[in-house]
Amino acid sequence: MRVIIFSWEFPPRIVGQLADYVKKLTVQLVKNNVETYVVTYHDYLTGQYEEPEGVKTCRVTNPVRTHIGVLTWVLTLNQEVERAATNIYYNTNKKIDLIDAHDWHFIPAAVTLKKAISLPFIYSVESLEEHRSHGANSPFNMAIKSIEWLGMYEAAKVVVKSEWMRDEVVKIYKVPVAKIKVIMPKSTTWMKDILENYKSVMGGEISEWLKN
Amino acid sequence: MAQELTVMMLTWEFPPRIIGGISPHVYHLSRSLAKNDVKVYVVTCDFPGAPQHEVVDGVEVFRIDSYKNPAPNFATWVYLMNMNMQKEAAALVNRLGGKVDIFHVHDWLVSNAGIGLKHVFRKPLLATIHSTEVGRRNGIHSDYERMIHETEAWLTYEAWKVICCSNYMVSHVQWAFGLPKDKLVMVPNGVNAQEYVKNADLSLFRRRFALPEEKIVLFVGRLVYEKGIHVLINAVPKVSEKVNAKFVVVGNGYMKEPLSNLVKGMGLAHKVIFTGFVDDETLRNLQRCADVCVVPSLFEPFGIVALEAMAAKSPIVVSDTGGLSEIVEHDVTGVKVYPNNPDSLAWGITKVLLDENYANRLKSNAYKKVQENYNWNKISLQTKSVYEAVLNEYSKSFWA
Questions:
Q1: How confident is the model over B67-109, as pLDDT tens digits?
Q2: Residue A186 at interface with chain B, using a CB cutoff of 8 Å
Q3: Residues of B in contact with A63 (CB under 8 A)
Q4: Domain edges within chain A
Q5: Chain B nearest CA to A29, separation (Å)
Q6: Which residues in chain A touch residue B150, judged by CB atoms under 8 angstroms apart?
Q7: CA–CA distance, B173 with B159 (Å, rounded to integer)
Q8: At how many degrees (to 10) do helices B342-354 and B356-373 cross?
Q9: pTM confidence score
Q10: Which of B8, B100, B120 has the most A C-beta neighbours within 10 Å, making it the best mutation to test the interface with A?
Q11: Which CATH number fits domain A2-211: 3.40.50.2000, 3.60.15.10, 3.40.440.10, 3.30.1330.40?
Q12: What ipTM was predicted for this assembly?
């Protein structure tokens, strides 16, 4: 299996909890024979690099240096994420099984790749704008929520880390419960659940090669 | 080329959505390309009443839902619209089996979508830069403006070639983004002269705007700083000393209210009419019956309204700047005046209005020039040869 992970934070860039979680996830994936690529952001440590544990990272920076907020910053960064992801796609002879996008930042890139090259993606939810901004509904917050909604709508599966979050996703974004998978990081079956979920998503046109 | 050349054009405006000059530009360019055997897909923003998909003169037009995301300001709206445009365009290319040879984008308003599509499908990107932030604002004064400026720089960096509509814009864009000279191509803007043929008696139409004894001085453009409309308003008293004229101002913009207050304060409300945005038919009729058309811009990459006036056989007075300097030859096809100088502008307008022989000579010279140099068939062939040159280079790259 070959997957690309999208995350806006990955060590050495640590913003919140997500960086450590994605690090742990990718190292475990490699141990389970999943060829794992990470596309992430770093301001100046850019380019391709294979981590000691075997995770292949590609760090991109923002081509537009000046911004008026995180929203515009994210929206111009997505094209670099697309560039990095499609470089991996073409360099592996178009044999990528899925994208696992963590939080909303690179959802636009995941959606474009789905539409362009029929690559399925999973939306892994760490947190939601509704909770981060305490229900604020200014156009800024609503724009971020609209991107989260897009991700929920277009994703093949939505992964959450608790039952509480599953209920929040259902309540806020009206996602069918069947589309949501609760995978708790502390659970003993965590990696097994992750891999099973990946396998359930694979099998778009792009993954035909795996069946042969 | 055995297979038909296929281009996907991205633009944030396409008729009936008309905000500025990009809309008519893309409309005429795409339909003329279609006549010259280029398959063109246009992906653009939606407009009330316009279908999501239609074929316009051989051009396939797709309109995307562009107002579905709330946005705190215009630039953020642009980036969100790009997210949606890119998604829809990507799906379209996928449906076509990837059969698109070139992505051609117009201005920074669709840069993100174009850049993303280039990388995802590994096809060359062409950008037409109609205008720049540094030019529109006469400098960069805030993070907001710098962000747009840097987005434009990013677009020119990612583009295989950058097309500009005048020699002035070529050097301006080269300076603004530090581009190598061989990356820039000049392809002029055009005008469809047939649309401006006088087809009816306009004396009744004219009475809606002016008394029979009043000359009509026409301004067409967005009511924003760079278009220099305030210069024209300040020239009104000087012109009125010598000629009985009515000033008709067509267009909208953030300066509309301050300007109409200024006009009232000057006691000229009966001499200056703000029509707001008007439909095509009214606009052309105004251009046909104007005694002089004025383009007093401070910054003008090309100056399509000058060409339109020339095609409508109305004499023109333009400020000697940007693309206008190239279109107009002083005393031959029009009158050039000093930019941002109401006295100079008033002199030019008065000269044309008081000397009928002079005005007639300018009109017929200008009309000839429009037909020879600025016709869309010629322009689309020039554009097609840019496409072919780019595809030839591309065919030798590792992406091909």
A1: 989 999 999 999 999 999 999 999 999 999 999 999 999 999 9
A2: no
A3: 150, 154, 157
A4: 2-211
A5: 26
A6: 63-66
A7: 13
A8: 100
A9: 0.89
A10: B120
A11: 3.40.50.2000
A12: 0.94
